[in-house]
Amino acid sequence: MSKYEVNGRLYSAEAKPGQCLRTFLRDLEVFGVKKGCDAGDCGACTVWLDGKPFHSCLVPAFRGEGRKITTIEGLAQNGKLHPIQQAFHDAQAFQCGYCAAGMMMTTASAAFDEAHKADLPHALKGNICRCTGYRSIVDALHGKKNIEKDVAGKALGASLPNPFTDAILTGKAHYTMDVWMEGMLHLKVLRSPHAHARLKKIDKSKALAVPGVVAVYTWEDVPRRLYSTALHEDHLVDPDDTYMLDNVARFVGQRLVAVIGETEAAAEAGVRAVEIEYELLPTVFDPVAAMEPGAPILHEKDEVDTANGNIFATLAGEIGDIHKGFREAEVIHENTYSTSRVQHVHLETHGSIAYKGKDGRWHVRTSSQGPFAARTKLAYLMGVPAARIHVYTERVGGGFGGKQEMVSEDLPLFATMKLDGRPVKWEWTREDEFIGATTRHQMTTKIKIGAKRDGTLTALDVQVVSNTGAYGNHASETLAAAMASPFAAYRCANKKGIGRVVYTNMIPGGGFRGYGASQTTFAMECAMNELAKVLDMDPFEIRRKNVVRPGDNVESIWMEPSDASFGSHGIDQCLEIVERELKKGNGVNKPDGDDWLEGTGAALAMLECGPPTEHRSGAEMKLLPDGKYHLACGSSEMGNGITTAHKQMAASVVGVRAADIDIINADTDRTPYDTGTFASTGTVVAGKAVMITAEAMKADILDFAARFTKTPVDQCRLDNDAVICGNKRIPLTELHAEGAKVNHRFTVSRKAYLSPRTIAFNVQGVRLAVHRVTGEIRILHSVHAADIGQPINPMQCRGQLDGAVAMGYGWALVENMVHEEGHMVNPQLRNCRVPAFADTPHTDIFFADTVDAIGPLGAKSQGECGINPVAPAVSNALANATGVRFAHLPFTADRLFSGGLTRAK
Amino acid sequence: MNLNTIVDVKRPKSFEEIEWRDGHAFLGGGTWLFSEPQVSTDTLVDLERLGWPALTVTPSGLEIAATCKIVELHDFKGPPEWRAVPLFDKCIDCFLMSFKIWNAATVGGNIVMSLPAGAMISLTAALEGVCTLWPQNGTPREVPVVDFVTGMHTNVLQKGELLRQIFLPASALTKRFAMRQVSLTHFGRSAALIVATVEDNDYDFLLTITAATPRPVHIRFRKTPSAKELHQAINERLPPDAWFNDVHGSAAYKRHVTFYLAEQIRAELS
């Protein structure tokens, strides 16, 4: 046996010949070493060899022999956090926490010297964080403290740290794949090499003959039930157009055959050995072409009800009379805008482990934003009662909508059911994510907008085409969102719209932060600036003049009654803040030289807080014998900070420290039902459930205390760890003991439902410089103002906005999934970039001073909408700088060049 | 990532021990090899124990072993008359990845990978480097770096042939240089990486175009050209279809910025 020294401990172990150090360490149960890409691009797996930092996924494991290996688990010494860990703790320099180990192992290494610290854009080229926008990481490296003290009764509005901070920063927190189980099997899938093909014949025999291959499953082996991978409360909003495994491939990357092996290597070899005879079918990739008569049809009508060929859904409506509106208009702007397909790139890939428990039930450990909705689908697919299935998360490494999809749970569950309950693990690769998960829907928006000379809008006409790819998960819901708030944001008597979402042979669309509204906000907000330009009007002024206000109908193209209502209205403040800050400037000048052009731009976005469709959450709370509380809530935590917020909300109601509330979340056995953490519901639905549960808890305690002390209940109140009844103070521990004597349990449960929905706003301002020859863009000043009501945790809210804005810049400037005939050309992070440190500008973030009358404890949604105004603000700034309107995302330098940069004024 | 098809690792101490066959792959730093599945490879031949000295200064120039780590090149300080040594760092900065990769990646590995944007190809081509190749059977041969790379992921190596070293002649290392790079993302993979070197008396102006073209291109002028001469020479040498189109920049864009950057470099060196 060879000797390896890991964190000062000696191991006798033998690395497999082609094994990388990353998996070798994980095989030793050193799970702090993460996988974000497995290809050297993201840095999550950084470890030290003899003190020098390496991407352990690129290091042959045998080269670790005889060297001192240090991982995140070895950073803290004698139970004391390393200064970098303490700095990350104090600045809360993480959200989901998945990149944190790699970030710290990079920045704590001796090689990371003062020169590196002074030049973070270069020094952090090899580390990707998808959550934070890197701002809090800079804070940590500069020794900034962002956290506040946890004081009883003052939890609401305090910047408290994530309750799992220490576990995350020491590598002890267990993400989905960070477990070892006896007898674990591994699942790999064969993905379609063709964009459209029928599987005429599948020969499994060679695959089954591969040593270590346990089973091979095709469409003939799995239940043939149609479903949608999208997770929603109401499964009827998504089309049942998908089979677990199908005999027709409709996009390159569709999973076709599942192979189970004793090792990943065996499963992979099995996948390579499967022989399939394909009958190639005609393909269509462009949604407009897919709507033409004679286009290849993606789904047969007897299986999937499509209204018209490949058109999965059409949403149309009109309020007022747009012909009249355009006749009244004195100026008209008309243009077509399009947005690109992008991937979520949550740093933790999808993955699930399914097994039979000692209780005889089926357990699925997974990385999901909606474990309850996933369980419902799994029960339906497998034909077993939901009560026989337990779905849970531990730590989830990012979601952004990508995990509002049941794509990794079903095959392992099916396999374990077939294989005597042996644990079956399916861990996705980064390439799996790029070619086999979902993306933001690509949409093209044709917009025509008319106004009076004074800027009053008179008519708005929009036509949207959304490409949902091969399957319709989230297709109609994202289209509905696209047709709603971006156009409802402005008062206009005459609006008309038609949106179509179309099947093609592309990778399927899905839910993604901003959820359809991002795409049409881009079109609408660019159009508003163009209109202002024709009117020679200030872009802020035209927005102020037309934006909806309390008293206006909040309506897009439909007149149906809506449950969206202003619980508060902070858009005027947001516009004022961004305008003021841009005017004031930040002292950053454009680079010298006439070739650098400078421009400013802004855009707004409106969010109806929560989905228009069903969404519900429950919470349970109990007083514990030690006088502290236990809170259970089904909501998923994937870096959005929702568990911190829920603890703070509960703590503020019962008047204790957040630390006095112990929380469990996202577990179908141990928490009440929750539809899922998506659609901006973590605060306004699950948070509402937490709030009313905490209120019920308070009432229950006071009621018992009143009866016990024979004091009128209106003379009883909670005081941190005690209850005061009249002039008597009874510690909660004592009260609990008294309750136990009479079988009073101090447990409560409440459910929350979403209606009405309040309304939030975000405004983004950008000043940038663009080089007229090279197309290089430098963001000189980035300002964001958010109308999110009472921030439950200001630091976290700022972090959510930092991350959302950074993702907006990624969409606008960096991310570019390139497909040729349905094949993704660049399914690696080094070829399909997401913003690195150097690509992510610092953003000054401001909050409007509003307290919402509808949202729980005055709060509104905050994590989602920040992304929406960024891309149009960038386009508006580019137009301001160059005189050229760039109407098609992304704005990479070569696309600016082909899009007319050389015509710049 | 795990290379699950690998069944054996050979760790020879001398070149003579290597018995090459199909399915073998030379392992340098491993930073490319371990970044993608290598399903047609079953054996790694680790070059680490060959023990080649990383950098050797001779009166005639600098010998860079193929196994020289990037970090060793980064730390190199040449004799003061080698004025082109600062170009080492400038090119090293053009790696897509950070300083961590320098600890593992090798100069030879970057050249053998033969990406149009390979920063070590840019560096060694610009400094008129010459590769020494060791064939499996036969006598070593020498090929200029500029001719070594023949296109995206292709080069002149025969089966089992090993890149032993890159020699940078002192005559190139003593020249003045100027360099420009652009990328679609900040500090990202090069869309164009252009270098020119020139002697003090304006003689021997050598323009090296990389990343923008599928393989490195030299355009040599007896004396520093005028703007017009430079533009014309690039145009003649590289027609519109000679540029490299990929996700890191369209061909038309790369052509466009090459003219611009080349002129900047020319002006700087004039």
UniProtKB/TrEMBL annotation, chain A:
Keyword ATP-binding annotated: no
Domain of life: Bacteria
InterPro entries for the chain: 2Fe-2S-bd, 2Fe-2S-bd_dom_sf, 2Fe-2S_ferredoxin-like_sf, 2Fe-2S_ferredoxin-type, 2Fe2S_fd_BS, Ald_Oxase/Xan_DH_a/b, Ald_Oxase/Xan_DH_a/b_sf, Ald_Oxase/xanthine_DH-like
Assigned keywords, A-Z: Iron, Metal-binding, Molybdenum, Oxidoreductase
UniProt-recorded Gene Ontology molecular function terms: 2 iron, 2 sulfur cluster binding; iron ion binding; oxidoreductase activity
All copies of domain 2Fe-2S ferredoxin-type, residue ranges: 1-75
Pfam families membership: Ald_Xan_dh_C, Fer2, Fer2_2, MoCoBD_1, MoCoBD_2
Gene3D superfamilies xrefs: 3.10.20.30, [2Fe-2S]-binding domain, Aldehyde oxidase/xanthine dehydrogenase, a/b hammerhead, Aldehyde oxidase/xanthine dehydrogenase, molybdopterin binding domain
Assigned protein family: Belongs to the xanthine dehydrogenase family.
Entries under PANTHER family matching the protein: ALDEHYDE OXIDASE 1-RELATED (PTHR11908:SF132), XANTHINE DEHYDROGENASE (PTHR11908)
Record-given protein name: Dehydrogenase
Species: Reyranella soli
TrEMBL record, chain B:
Source organism superkingdom: Bacteria
InterPro entries given in the database record: Diverse_Substr_Oxidored (IPR051312), FAD-bd_PCMH (IPR016166), FAD-bd_PCMH-like_sf (IPR036318), FAD-bd_PCMH_sub2 (IPR016169), Mopterin_DH_FAD-bd (IPR002346)
GO MF annotation: an example: FAD binding
UniProt cross-references to Gene3D superfamilies, sorted A to Z: 3.30.465.10
Pfam families from the UniProt entry: FAD_binding_5
Limits of the FAD-binding PCMH-type domain: 1-173
Protein name: FAD-binding molybdopterin dehydrogenase
Lineage: Bacteria, Pseudomonadati, Pseudomonadota, Alphaproteobacteria, Hyphomicrobiales
